[in-house]
Amino acid sequence: MEAYDVVDLKRISNVIRRKVIEMVYSAKSGHPGGSLSAADILTVLYFKEMNIDPLHPDDPDRDRFIMSKGHASPGLYATLSVRGFFPESFLSGFRKLNSKLEGHVHRGVPGVEVSTGSLGQGLGVGVGMALAGKLDQRSYRVFVLVGDGEIEEGNIWESIMAANKYHLNNLIAILDRNRIQLDGFTRDIMPLNNIPDMIASFGWNVIEIDGHDHNQIISAIEEAKESLEKPTFVVANTVKGKGVSYMENNPKYHGSPPASEEEYRLAISELSGGE
Amino acid sequence: MISESLRETYGEELAILGEGHKNLVVLDADLSSSTKTSIFGKKFPDRFFNMGISEQSMVTAAAGLALSGKKVFASTFAVFLMRTYEQMRQSVCYNNLDVNFVVTHAGITVGEDGATHQIVEDVGIMSGLPNMKVIVPADSYEARSVIDYLVESGTGPNYVRLSREKFPLLYDDNYSFHPGVSSTLRDGSDITIIGMGVMVSFALKAAEILKQKGIGVRVINMSSIKPIDKKAIIKAANETGRIVTVEEHSIYNGLGSRVAEVISENHPVHLKRLGMMDTFGKSGKSWELFDYFHMGVDDIVKVSEECFRKETYYENIS
Q1: Mean pLDDT of A145-171
Q2: What single string gives the DSSP state of each residue in B66-100?
């Protein structure tokens, strides 16, 4: 793969965002908000940091990525398609009968490691993969993207304990901290006042960054490589609906596509700025 | 009859199989000294993961290990595994992974610990999951054969239901488990009793008493609940005309319900289901509880006689 600089990565992030909008508009359903907030993180992982090869998706030494917040399927599917895991033509079938792309992240899709959708489970699956990596003495790393509404699930905290117990320094969780969940703002639904301190107290290495700054995302993942014993938890502060003015910080667009042709055109236009 | 512990057999067999099967990993949730996975854990500490009292963590980690090529066994008490229904559903069954849930302390043979620990709904819950297979061994020999099968040629997801109590021995070393295949332990032409788990040994005792009353009983051990042995059920319906099911489980969604489905669609005959009648269990000695809940040998005899003497299939409709 060619080496991308930050200018390239920013461009790719917006390509992914446009595809997200196209997919949910075509499907007339789906979750744009959390896909747009995660687009920069996904770009850095798939185009810069992860050791992956679309031609060898089963390579036992590949890095693993788990989209624990499985409703951000448009973001992951768009990323995998742009990265070359499957043809772009698959994307128009998203959420439709007899297409390749299930509504939530589905393992049958090339490049997808595990099916997700019901929240709170992906981090635990990542713990299992990281344990296997240690057992088999392989050097791969396991990345898990979790949502900030998602960490209200008890399963997440159980898995946080397990990763600490087994010193899974090959496990990197990234929190897409966009502060919005389905019913509203996380501070109203279930306030968690100091997530970095909470996670650190469970024995993890915690790094807090701006989740839309590609340089900061790269630095955080590089720093995680240096962790000798602890798993790493990256708190990435993001904006839900990032890049589309009327979607930004609006809980409505957690799970709704552009409401009209006008909204659709506006979103695509805003995401095409500067190109 | 000599009795042996199925969970001891499970732990010992895993520890034996762990030698030749290096990809075998075992998880538990702080009950390994009771489920007996501790026997494996002591021998192969690197491949044993005690996840603490965190069943959701255990099940999702089991999925991650299976996705990485491991053959996974995960154990706890049956009742506690049920809180991870959704982890089993999405992370294990939907992904169709080689995870084998071998649970112990199922049913009322938990005894003194009482209703909170005596799950009688689990077979129904597990049978509803696509891809999941459900197996209920009736004795220690069968338990060993099931574990051998799962490790050597089976693929998950599987649910294997074991007990706290020792169960009377029914088989010997020649027994070999096959999914979807039942075994007929006694033949007869008047009525068939289909049993699951420890109730198979009760059914055999009942059959002996019924023989003295002039009623010939076929006894089938239906250890493979899913897939179920339809052929044997239809054959029994055809040849004996009357069926009684006996299970240490709710009569809803367990063995009796599965048998009812098969005969209703294929060969309707008299059917009587014996088991827990939509109720929770109770503290007491295991073997006392069977009489308390009207599931003892005498109850099986009584119900079987009634079923045998029924005139027509439709007599209850008025």
Answers
A1: 98
A2: HHTT-EEEEE-BHHHHGGGHHHIIIIIIITT--EE
